[in-house]
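Course assignment 3, question 2. Fill in each field.
Student: A.L.
Task: Predict the tertiary structure for the chain below.
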Amino acid sequence: MKNGISVHMTRFLMYFYGSTWGWENLQKTQASTYRFIFELTLYTLFPNEVDVKIVQIKRGRSVIMMKHIQTKLTRNTFLFLALIACFLVMSSISHAVTIELSEAPSSWLPKFDNTVSIKVTIKGNLHSHHTVVFNLSEVTNWPGISMNYGLITSRAPDLVLYSTDQQGAGITWRNRGTAAQSLSAAFTTNSESRKTFAVKIRSYDYGAFGKLSAQLYGSGGESSSPLNSAGPITIPLDKNGNRIADGWMYDTSRNYSPSADNESGPSGNSSSGDGFTVFEEYRGFEIKGTHTRTTPFDKDLFIYSIFSSEGVGYATKLRQDTGYIFKVHSIYQSEMNSRRVMNSRKCPGYWKMDQKAVKVLKDTTRGPISYWAGHRRVNLGVIFGYAFTDPQSFQGSYIPSQALSATVYTSNIEDQLDDPGETISTSEAIKKIIAHEVAHHISLDHASSGLMSTLSTAGSLSAIGTNYPLSHHAHEYRLVP
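Answer field:
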């Protein structure tokens, strides 16, 4: 019908400019019922302006019918007919069936085993023979489910379409293929209520990303060309194209590059970054059994401590004493790998370095402490704690990726507290020593006061402070090479 209308619209234009029109060889499909009725109507409405002649032309043994129409239609008559034609065109278009996909909710974030519902709208006359096919593309398959948790060997798609997740009476859902990346929805009724429904996508990673598209098929099924299509849309919503959900509060407000690592501070410190990219902070970490997305402007320090009561000690003061630049996270041993790496579930393209946690250990050795550094033995004397390097080849202040452990010598602490000048408990002293050795892991050196003072400068463990004076250490803090 559309082709017929187009032909007649062309004829109207010819009429408008005072031309004549002739059709030859009008046989069978060309001499359609629709054309005949239309021209008969035209002749009936305007008998004085339309002259229809049927001419026979002999060519050999064949007789060809030629219909020749001459017209002197006025401009007003043309406009009237044009309106009729436009009405027919719009009526035809109104019967077309289209499909639309709404964007993912702006607040939705991918997690492990959560779903997002995408609204699907079909416009036009929906029939029981229509089928919609949904496809996922560009789906990530990161190892694990966050930066430090989940099977590192697991590389299954992070977003899937399961028929069992879907709902809706009058719709038959079926998975296509074995990877759960394609799903069909066949309509078994013509109900108007089926024109708006939802398709659910399930996430299995806190950094999952992919794109969803849909194709609408008619009675020919999936073997025919789709009547209409929609998408692709990003899952999750990602208007700035950095593959980080716009719903993450630090994404749209700052528009970071996913591979950036630019945390700065405290004031007077020239070392930027904490060893974790923006994408790694967004994907997050398992911290004491709870998934946590860190922030792209905090310098994050992870600490595993064998001390159940004292924990990370006064290292918690780093937050306040750095002007809320550093953030200390206490973790379980299982939340770092055997090399203490916190971002072992690497995401290619968004990885900067293996950043490590600080490991706080307990040693009950009493008396002078010594250790082997390569082929030589280093004698440390009677000490209360020591920050060992990895490998054990140098002394001084360094960063987490160079450290091995912050070891606390509890027996030596107990012996020191027997001194009449000491007034604090063993637990209080341990908390100070933990904080002191942890600080060596982030490049802080000894100072004349605060937690980085020593027995020789303070005079006693009791006299050692419980904070990190910014005036002493602002320029020293460092987490990256």
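Instructor remarks: Residues 2-94 form one domain. The chain is about 20% helix and 25% strand.
Grade: pending
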